[in-house]
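Narrative summary of target 7.
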Amino acid sequence: MIGGKPMSRKNPIPPKNFEEAVAELEQILQHIETGELGLEQTLVEYERGNFLIQHCREVLNSAEKQIELISKGPDGAWAAKPFEPAAEGQE
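Modeled conformation, tokenized:
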């Protein structure tokens, strides 16, 4: 159980939002890194972590598509253009 939520392999419970997913991922990582969990519980938490990672990817992909749709062109008109993340170290 993570954050008071039961784990289910068949019907995982999605987080309420992106921030909650990231916080839960951090908690899972801390639990696994301690090495104090048994193998079965480690696997359950690892599975939950994978589910949360996929959820976060989907949220980020959706946000990226929204950014593409609402970007303005050079003439000030709305124009679709791909999102280009800042290069590492340039923010």
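The chain has one domain: 1-91.
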